[in-house]
Amino acid sequence: MLAVFFIAQKVSKDTILSQVVVPAPVSSPVSSPALSPVTVPTPVLSPGPSLTGTPPPNTPNTPTCPPTPTFSPTPATLTTPTPATLTTPTPATLTTPSPLPPDTTDLVFERAVDTLDDACRERLLRPAAEYDAEILRINSDTRKKQSADNTKYDGLRSRYRSQLARKPQELAAILLMTNTQADNAAARIKSISSRRKTVALGIRRRATEAVNEYRAHRLVSLRSDLEIRLTRKAEDYRLRVQQLESSQARKLQQQKETEALHQQHQARRLQQNEEKEALRQQHQARRLQQKKDKEALRQQHRLVVARLKEILSSLKETKPRYKPAFDTDASFPLQERHQVQPPPVPGPPTTQIGPLCLSPVEAASMRVVQDTHVDNSTPRVLYSDGSLLNSGTLEVSQAFGVVDLTQDNPLTVQGRTDGHASSAKAELMGLLAAVLSAPPEQDIVVKLDNQSVVDQYSRLVKNRRDTLPRKRFRSTYAGIWAVLCQVVESRPGGVEVVWIKGHSNIHGNELADQAAKVAAQSGSVPWMVDLTQQTDITTFAHCYGGIVEIDLRQLLKQQSTIRHHQAWTSQRRVKRAIPDIEDVEWNSTLAYVHDRHAVFTFYSNSKDSHQRTHHIKKLHGMLPTLNSMQARKPNLYPTCVCRRCELEKEDNDHVWKCPSAAETTTEIWKEAMGKINEWGVQATNSYNAARKREYKRAVDRGRQVPRPVPIHWWPPSDADHVRGFSSIGGARAVHSGSPALDRDEKPMWNVSDLLRGITPLSMLTEWSAVFRTPMSIAKTVLHKFVGYLEAQASELIWKPRCSATIAWEQTQGISAKDKTSKYTGPRAATIVAQSQVLDRTATGGWCTEEFGLARKPNLYPTCVCRRCELEKEDNDHVWKCPSAAETTTEIWKEAMGKINEWGVQATNSYNAARKREYKRAVDRGRQVPRPVPIHWWPPSDADHVRGFSSIGGARAVHSGSPALDRDEKPIWNVSDLLRGITPLSMLTEWSAVFRTPMSIAKTVLHKFVGYLEAQASELIWKPRCSATIAWEQTQGISAKDKTSKYTGPRGWSDTTEIWKEAMGKINEWGVQATNSYNAARKREYKRAVDRGRQVPRPVPIHWWPPSDADHVRGFSSIGGARAVHSGSPAPDRDEKPMWNVSDLLRGITPLSMLTEWSAVFRTPMSIAKTVLHKFVGYLEAQASELIWKPRCSATIAWEQSQGISAKDKTSKYTGPRGDWSQGYGYITHDGFSTIVAQSQVLDRTATGGWCTEEFGL
């Protein structure tokens, strides 16, 4: 078959496809509501012309290969060497009597026919290629046999001629006989060739017939589907027309009602306007009358005042009147109370010029500039520059200088400033000094070499009104910018700020820079800015006695970062894992943590997250080594000896220093050392290229800078390597191949730190000096060196260690679940704490037989106690079981015997505590009475009985009776004490009966109940568990069975029962939906009335319980619903509707079913929709629980019996999917696959991917 396939591939595909004729797409020829009969032509597959044609002249006696079979819209015949013909059925006719909408084009049918044609064409490609290959092979075999026979007989003839040359008669006879044999052999070969061709043609004919039959069968199915679809389309069109008419009628009615309401509203508004106009006129009349009354009163007041003046003028004045010297209210305006002014400016300023406080000498130099002549013909140019020295240290100094070159002698103003140190602060103070130094009427141009200050001046001063308040208030040095803005606005002269290039041989800029540097090195008094002379910002934040000059949010973020960093560096594990935090090159170290990605990016995925977690644990010394696992799970790890060397305890330091890893470390080290030259050359080339780009950028900007000299990388010698690792402990031993890494040395850093990904800063300094390269090149090479060590150590040291540990864990039976489960056992002692008692009491959910029966009815058919075999076992019966009565009595007597011991201990502790309190009070000088020692009096038997009067069953247990608390019904029982509950009423009783303080009684009771709880767990609960486990083993119940999820039936699991349950709930859902519908209509009516609209009162709708006939009619469009409703086990086997009961069980809600329900149940569409939604939802939920999940359980059980694992089901299948014996299939790259009908493919896709047996097959 492979030979045939490869020969078929040699045939030209263009020649084959050019002869394929595809029929025109079939569509419904109906174009009017009255559908005429639809005739669908049936494409027939023709194998091609006859095979009995005239052979070509070049190949005598060789029949021609027939062309590729084509589709023909009319029936065709197949001519073979034998007189037999092949015919196909006649086309079928489809008629639909029902009316259709104007658009009757059925694209589904067209696409299905096109897909069918494509599939048939694909299926015929293989037999055509097989036939062509077989013909070629037959012709080749024929030619070979003919050639062999011709050679054979030619040789015989020549031999006979040479032997019988002297006997012509015998020679003629023998030659005649030889010719006859040759002719017979040729005829025999032709006969065999003809038969073989006939067989090949028959195979091809059968393939063509199979395709014709398949296509005819599919066309019949497509026609039936087309008929159903067109009928439903016509019915849907009719329903839509009816709905459209009814909706139009409703809209007309609503328009009429709306128009009537609008008219009523207009009339009501006209009436309201008339009433408002009348009220307005009344109000105006009343106001006029009030004005007249006020005017009359004013006239009377004038008359009275005039009379009083006449009386006063007649009197003689004995004392002169004095006018106050100033108006107090005008001279001292009150400030608003909410306004918070900044604190007064600190320091000892002696002179103030505007908002600046400065020394007298510097003030004098500023006044010299202010007193110069004003000339506004051209603006005066001032140069300003700032200087920042010792940045990042306590000796930081920032200063500025201003130079005026317009005078005969250059005038200079210089000074220092303090606060938040930055070059921008110095430049800003220089700009403020330049503006205040110039005469107010003079137009000035200030030239700076700081682009950021120039940009901020344009935004915060020149265009301050257009800047958002947040930008103004949150900018750095916002107060100084506000003062500068007020100074500039108050000047009569204009101010312009221009940027110039710094250090570009500009005379004024160079003088200003020199002045700023001189001022920075001087000890003059810093200039201060009085922020109270601006009104834009009224409140400033303070920190450590100074004003916060940067953005407050930025300051808080910095403080939070510093606080977190301080907390991180203070952790003991960080100090233990990283000896010197300041001596770490953190950029490289964090690059390893983030797997060579940028530190501040948001790149992440699951793999990256796991690797980052590993790097962080490795950096902090928190890898899950055996010593940490033993501390977490002492029950699983009894020892923490390394599983590779079996010599020492394995911790985070031993992992990298293990003797078994010494050779690996040496190999990794040598490989990394061998790559240093390669990394050095790369880093040097990158460094030279960067310097070259900087030089070119400077030249393009017009700056004169020296041409950079290229730097070369010199391969370091072995001595250089040794000196480069002088600060790394164990590096010399590893470099020389010694197995001992760093046992005898105690340096700050070891080779193990490099393997963990830590890059020491001291090592970077050494490399830069030893290798004679700039710091950036050494940093790059060291970064790659340590990164290579860290990556290789993880692969070749850590992962083999994990493999060895996991192998040991498997031998010990330690699973992944055991390692992640919570350990609740003792870690240092076996004493049961009171918190554990309370936790155990709070659970209240011991795994009893009753609890198991409720969860796993398939495993626990009964819940009878396995100890007494008398009663049902629940959480109460565990402690009251008759088989545990004697044990309870023994525990009780042991605890009662220890009460005196506990009482004496508690009393002694109480007396000692009171004595310490008395001594402490006396030492503090307080007069307190000396405490009287308290004695513990052993309680009598009657005291014990009275002390347990509130505990049911205590008297019976105390007397040794096997009945615990059967006949009593108190609040608390002995079983509650056994569970660890300490009643508060019992504490009060003990304090009164034993005549002791409450604290002593509490301590004794705590120990008593704790002892009962611990002993009950050991002697009652654990034997009960042993008995239950023994019974489970006899029943074949494993631990996996108890923890697996139970998905079996709990009451009923049949489709019929699910259906009946849902049908029984229809009335309940209908009543609920109807009530909700009526309530919603009532709320709408009330809302409309409140808005003044006149709407008819809604009539309440009632839900009428549907009859059985209504149910049947409501499911008329659902196949199998009648059978399920009647209890038949076959839901939808014999019916072929559009929807079936299985579709409802899958959660599909048909729209046609909603229309039926609304008509059958005589309810609005919304009520029917709500009820149908709940009905289908209930079917879907119950079907998933009671049909699908049990099916999954049965399938999984079968898969387990067949040895099919979950990995087998998810792995990719790469084997053959079919062969030629199964029929002609699709030609794929991987082989041949059987043909699946298009409808089956769509149906399987629509299921949503259920893992059925057919899908798995």
UniProtKB/TrEMBL annotation:
Q: What is its EC number?
A: 3.1.26.4
Q: Where is the composition biased (Low complexity)?
A: 25-53, 73-103
SUPFAM superfamilies, alphabetized: Ribonuclease H-like
Q: Where is the signal peptide?
A: none
User: Which reactions are catalysed by this chain?
Assistant: Endonucleolytic cleavage to 5'-phosphomonoester
Compositional bias (Pro residues) at which positions? 54-72
InterPro entries reported in the protein's UniProt record: RNase_H (IPR050092), RNaseH-like_sf (IPR012337), RNaseH_domain (IPR002156), RNaseH_sf (IPR036397)
Region entry Disordered: which residue ranges?
25-103, 250-296
One GO BP annotation of this record? DNA replication, removal of RNA primer
The segment(s) forming the RNase H type-1 domain are: 376-521
**Skewed-composition ranges (Basic and acidic residues):** 271-280
UniProt record similarity statement: Belongs to the RNase H family.
Annotated protein name in UniProt: ribonuclease H
- Lineage summary: Eukaryota, Fungi, Fungi incertae sedis, Mucoromycota, Mortierellomycotina
